[in-house]
Amino acid sequence: MSAPEPAHKRLLLKLSGEALMGDDLFGINRDTIIRMTRELAEVVGLGVEVAVVIGGGNIFRGVAGGSVGMDRATADYMGMLATVMNALALADAMNKQGMAARVMSAIAIEQVVESYVRPKALQYLEEGKVVVFAAGTGNPFFTTDTAAALRGAEIGAQVVLKATKVDGVYDADPEQNPHAKRYATLSFDEAIMRNLGIMDATAFALCRAQRLPIKVFSILKPGALKRVVMGEDEGTLVHV
Q1: Are the C-beta atoms of 80 and 107 separated by less than 8 Å?
Q2: Can you give the residue ranges of every domain in the chain?
Q3: CA 192, CA 74: separation in Å to the nearest integer?
Q4: Which CATH architecture has domain 10-239?
Q5: Per-residue b or e along 166-175, where b marks 16 or more CB atoms closer than 10 Å to that residue's CB
Q6: For the segment 12-50, what is each residue's pLDDT rounded down to a tens digit?
Q7: CB-count burial class (<10 Å; 0-12, 13-18, 19+) for 88
Q8: CA distance 157 to 126
Q9: Phi-psi domain of 132 (left: phi exceeds 0; alpha: psi -120 through 50; beta: other)
Q10: Is this model's pTM higher than 0.85 or not?
């Protein structure tokens, strides 16, 4: 009997910067990033092509106080630079786990990391390398959620995996209501009608227009990423 096949051949994983903090107040927790890269290695080992978009909140929150009253575009560029730092740390940890990882930045920092070029990114994915997209879209006023939707569409990902602290989308706050029900699946229209706030409006509209499903799951649950990739009942799938 043959082993089950992954449900997705190519995926885009959206990681928040806060996911790298572990129990720390800000920065990168070494044990947390090692655990995450081990779970990524399991998925890559299945032959799945993986790209990652990472946020910068874990670093930017440490300097956010100084950004009060700052020009919004300037603050956003600072946030983009924070994502580059996270991407370098994540790629380094993946390389140490035996994976081949490449960082591609939406803003040019040639001495540090290569710039994003779509054909090159596709080549890396086809070669089995993990591509970490840094610096968001390269534009202020757009979130890393939007970057995830954009890059997911550009690379032909079959799904955007949104890693959160909660194991799916619920009809109420599960921390406040022990009877809250997790949705196994939702349509884009249902999510809009119920005002569930799964991604920011721009990112959500782009995924909907491109018919790109979104899977929301908890990155804190051991093995959850692999279960999602294998198509098991984990998290919430938002689809057309």
Answers
A1: yes
A2: 10-239
A3: 31
A4: 3-Layer(aba) Sandwich (3.40)
A5: bbbbbeeeee
A6: 999 999 999 988 888 999 999 999 999 999 999 999 999
A7: middle
A8: 12
A9: beta
A10: yes
